[in-house]
Amino acid sequence: MEVLSGRVLVRPTDPARSTAFYRDVLGLAVFREFPGGTVFFLGGGHLEVSGRADPGPVDERVRLWVQVRDLAAAHREVVARGAEVLRGPRREPWGLDEMWVADPDGIRIAVVEVPPEHPLRRDPRP
To answer: How many domains does the chain have?
Structure first.
């Protein structure tokens, strides 16, 4: 299978509220809009907010992971914009600096900075 593109789909309970969160609180740039949805740039992929879900428990098996250059600055920005911070920035045992926020429906989002010394920053090729 040759994958040409991919995106994460979010089905919010309140599309306008969730679109505003991803656009105004997280500051994601809009890739395109269509009747009933918005697609945001998400680094090398996309996040589509479309459709509508019935209220209910959040699926704990799904998380979003977004990498930023400066976690402290990202923390200040999302707090100033009203994000629900589930856990503030800290260094994890696996060496990444992470904080966790939630979207309006409770979807958990890891906001991650990869420190300069972390293996993800090194080219493993000989």
So the answer is: 1
